[in-house]
Specification:
- The structure is a single chain.
- It contains no helices and 11 strands.
- It is mainly beta and about 120 residues long.
- Strand 7 and strand 8 form a beta hairpin.
- The N and C termini lie far apart (about 40 Å).
Length: about 120
């Protein structure tokens, strides 16, 4: 079984910072790409940032320069440091991981349960 658990959400004023973390645990061969998505009320889930196992990153345009994604391959964790937060960043943030359960199986995507981020104006 694989578990993906996020932490670090909360309420912050505009201009403030939050750090979200996600840890993958259980039995698996390798964690591949990791990332963060978010979903605001009434909107579709959207990509925030991704990071490859080798450290290559990709950001949604609206968070570039404000958010920084990082990972620790030894600990199977991914984090996103969110600075200069805006009310429009308010959403449920989900950890997304691409995991190879066994070396001879195709990888599949696992999601966390989500953590709420609320930015007040």
């Amino acid at each position: 079984q694989v578990q993906v658990v996020e932490s670090g959400g909360g309420l912050v004023q505009a201009g403030g910072s939050l750090r979200l973390s996600c840890v993958v645990s259980g039995s698996f061969f390798r964690v591949n790409n990791m990332g963060w998505y978010r979903q605001a009320p009434g909107r579709q889930r959207e990509l925030v940032a991704t990071i490859s196992r080798g450290g290559s990153t990709n950001y949604e345009d609206s968070v570039k320069g404000r958010f920084t994604i990082s990972r620790d391959n030894a600990k199977n964790t991914v984090s996103v440091q969110m600075n200069s937060l805006k009310p429009e960043d308010t959403a449920v943030y989900y950890c997304n991981t691409d995991i190879t359960i066994r070396y001879d199986l195709e990888p599949r995507v696992y999601w966390g349960q989500g953590t709420q981020v609320t930015v007040s104006s």
